[in-house]
Amino acid sequence: MTRRKSVRNSRLRTAVTTTAVAAGSAGLLAGSLYVVHAEGRPGGKEAKLAGDAQAGRQGTGQGAGQTAGRRTGQAAATATRIADRLGTRTTGGYVDSAGRPVVTVTNATDAAAVRAAGAVPKMTQRSPATLTRVTSTLRQSVSDIPGTGWAVDPATSKVTVWTDDTVTGTRMAAVQRTARQMGAAIRMVRIPGTLRTFALGGDAIFGGGARCSLGFNVKRGQQDFFLTAGHCGNEVQNWTSDQEGAEAVGTTVESDFPGNDFALVQSEGQAGQSAVNLYNGQAQEITEAGEAVVGQEVLRSGSTTGVHDGTVTATNATVNFAEGSVSGMIQTTVCAEPGDSGGPLFADGAALGLTSGGSGDCQTGGVTFFQPVTEALQVFGAEIG
Q1: Other CB atoms within 10 A of residue 56 CB
Q2: Where are the beta strands (DSSP E) in 99-257?
Q3: Which of 49, 145, 172, 292 is the one with CA 20 to 30 A from 32?
Q4: Spatial contact of 179 and 208, defined as CB atoms under 8 Å apart
Q5: 341 an active-site residue?
Q6: pLDDT in tens, the chain (385 residues)
Q7: Do residues 233 and 22 touch, judged by C-beta distance below 8 A?
Q8: Exactly one of 261, 309, 340, 348 is catalytic; which is it?
């Protein structure tokens, strides 16, 4: 089942309690699936990937989930709250290099209100309406070119347009022609590698030859579900914890991709606790769903590469994969690799997003995009839980 893109201004904040549960003989944590006997397949790729993650390939130290994001989490929440109040009178909020919440404004009255609310006002060089017209033009002209995307940068009052290494020749000429029409409102950026979704056959949650990662455990009414990526849910109906298909963990009931990139999977038995596996013997409790903000420090957990950290560089971004265009995305500097799709993006105790796709890898670095989790919760009528 597919659903239309919901209104981005709708926000959802859900407080939950943590519950410890098990599914069959495998314990589920958001962001991972402890695969029974995974280490017992000697020489297999699955065993190596699990070993790499447990050995600390993730690149963040013990307790990372308890420290990363705290310096910017409160500032991000402040910027989000104030920007929501201003609505169409702002191009957005962000966290600056000093860790302060900044919100763009168009007049002195709003500037005073922003300052009184505890943030730094910044007069935007271009109106929100102008930047909206720019992104609308890009959507009409460039959406059918894979390897491209764009997002409004509130710090510069420009729209950043990116192209990956596959955009060449006539396709690059078309992007540049549209960019020239927009003049100084556009900033062009080249992304090394190829923008792609991060699903692959392998380890973690399995089905139909695909491997993805569990995102966040959620509840709808009294029933247990979990979230993962829509491009995973489109391909897989029945999920298991092992490649052989012996341990059922859930059934996809709704999936949306492209347009969005989220899927709802009904858990087999009870879902796991509201926490994210940090791949160091610890778990980060998840107590709410939140909105990502530019400049915020974040973490991502996934079955291929474990835990990595980075910074939010854009929100409400549009990215054009080969499979189709997805809008409203979170862009970050966090790396990811095939198999990490669907895994959680979080900051301290807040669920932020589901891993969708990007370019690069965790050896050389890259750019990764995430589906905001608040939208998935709203569409599915679910709560973190």
Answers
A1: 14
A2: 101-105, 120-123, 148-153, 158-164, 186-191, 196-197, 205-207, 210-212, 217-220, 223-228, 238-240, 248-256
A3: 292
A4: no
A5: yes
A6: 444 443 333 322 222 222 222 222 233 445 433 222 222 222 232 222 223 333 333 444 445 444 545 667 889 999 999 999 999 999 999 999 999 999 999 999 999 999 999 999 999 999 999 999 999 999 999 999 999 999 999 999 999 999 999 999 999 999 999 999 999 999 999 999 999 886 543 337 888 888 899 999 999 998 999 999 999 999 999 998 777 777 888 999 999 999 999 999 999 876 656 788 888 888 898 989 999 999 999 999 999 999 999 999 999 999 999 999 999 999 999 999 999 999 999 998 999 999 999 999 999 999 999 999 999 999 999 999 7
A7: no
A8: 261
CA distance 111 to 156: 17
With tokens 């995430």, the residue in question is 370
- 213, 303, 341, 359: the catalytic one is 341
State the catalytic residue, choosing from 110, 164, 231, 255: 231
Q: Note the pTM of the prediction, 2 decimals.
A: 0.79
Query: Is 261 an annotated catalytic residue?
Result: yes
Tokens 């410890």 locate to 20
